[in-house]
């Protein structure tokens, strides 16, 4: 069965600094991978997705992620953090058309 | 498209009462999911439907929980009787085949 591990339940960065949120997955077949963002009292919004095309995926708000099969990783990065990036971020995996399985989430704080 | 619509957004009820949460998926999406989000357990899949048919309800915590999808445009999640430990945010999501899930804004349930 597929699973996701997000390293670090809370990450804090300075405004303008690099954002790196880590995600490792387990899957018995080539996976579909997703990053979602959740702002307080809202639903989950898709940031980006990997569905077996290019391994470097660009998403909204300047985020990107790289699929590394050898490392079973799909880390999320952004070159320069903005105050508006403060939110909860979730990595998810799916095996084809199976339901998405989510990690525990990483809360990102951005310090002015 | 208005997205996935959930109602109510907030529900406060007394222990022992019946609670019904409602969801209207995005038109044309053939899969529907009910997730529960808590601080302790994160995002848990409760049940999912493909083409209105329940496929996997192994995530439903107890017989007190039930879900239906009478047609492609409507689903309900019912808790009877409700208990304080059922307090959580309940999300409905829908999905076309082999891509990301689209989430509603959630229903925040408080059982007192």
What can you tell me about this protein's structure?
Helix content of chain A is 0%, strand content 55%. Chain A is built from no helices and eleven strands. In chain A, strands 2, 4, 5, 9, 10 and 11 form a six-stranded mixed beta sheet that branches. A five-stranded antiparallel beta sheet of chain A has the order 1-3-8-7-6, with no helix packed on it. The termini of chain A are far apart. With 112 residues, chain A is mainly beta. Chain B has 112 residues and is an all-beta fold. Chain B has strands spanning 5-7, 10-13, 19-24, 31-38, 42-50, 53-56, 65-71, 74-79, 88-95, 102-103, 107-111. In chain B, the strands form two sheets. In chain B, strands 2, 4, 5, 6, 9, 10 and 11 form a seven-stranded mixed beta sheet that branches. In chain B, strands 1-3-8-7 form a four-stranded antiparallel beta sheet, with no helix packed on it. The N and C termini of chain B lie far apart (36 Å). The mean pLDDT of chain B is 96. The chains are: A mainly beta (112), B mainly beta (112). Chains A and B meet through strand 4, strand 5 and strand 10 of A and strand 4, strand 5 and strand 10 of B.
Structural class of chain B: mainly beta
Helix content of chain A: under 10%
How many E strands of chain A? 11
What composes the largest sheet of chain A? 6 strands, mixed
Keywords, separated by commas or semicolons:
heterodimer; A: 112 residues; mainly beta; 6-stranded mixed beta sheet; 5-stranded antiparallel beta sheet; B: 112 residues; 7-stranded mixed beta sheet; 4-stranded antiparallel beta sheet; 0% helix; 55% strand; globular
Topology of this protein?
The complex is a heterodimer of chains A (112) and B (112).
Chain A: E1 3-7, E2 10-14, E3 19-26, E4 32-38, E5 44-50, E6 56-58, E7 64-68, E8 73-78, E9 87-94, E10 101-102, E11 106-111
Chain B: E1 5-7, E2 10-13, E3 19-24, E4 31-38, E5 42-50, E6 53-56, E7 65-71, E8 74-79, E9 88-95, E10 102-103, E11 107-111
